[in-house]
Predict the 3D structure of the following.
Amino acid sequence: MSIKYDKKQPLYEQLMDKLKTKIKGDYKPNDKLPSEREIMRNYAVSRNTVRQALNELEILGFIFRQHGKGTFVANAISNPATLGNEHSFTKQMKALGRKPETKIMEYSVRQANQYFAERLHIAEGDRIIKLKRLRSADGVPVMIDRTYLPYEKFAGLSPDELEVKHRSLYGVFAEDYGEVFHIADEALSAGRISDKDASVLKVPLGTPGLMLKRTTYNQKNEIIEFTLSSTRSDQYVYNIRYKNANI
């Protein structure tokens, strides 16, 4: 097969375009791509060109790599959610025209150990509620939330309010308990999705993800929620806008 390349454009960029077209037309998420050697042979390019193209495609979210296993197609959706712009997953998905779903995987009441007592600003041994939820959009699993709440504030909380009645957690806070979201502090980091979460999120073992810690305050500056989220990075982007204060 004879392949024509434009001498005015870097070769790896042209290979990127050809691979993107191939990925969009012939592959599904998590399909394995040909090896570097096969791509070299199929497109008549050097190994360095192939590696440059694959590196860029990985940065752009079209593929992901697993050491010792190969290169795979990512689920690069056209309208990923944006972390940081909306504190409610339910509202965020609806704003994007996607159908949000929540499945309660665990609901329990337990005593707070030192770690959670410090994060909720309560005494060690006080009761807390743990909610483990699978959040999906259009039937695609997106994230797993592990949310911890002070039992004293939300003693009557029912899992049905969130799962069966499709209400957002913050809506329940405000409407049923008078606890209005005021400020949320979030810390985002890159990490590896645990094997257990990978199975639930339907991604290969070892898949990278976004790890989010969120502490939510009410209007009295009291902590009403602490959440740890494991999120598929192919379903979210993180945008930040900076403003020059000197202008």
In short: The longest strand covers residues 100-111.
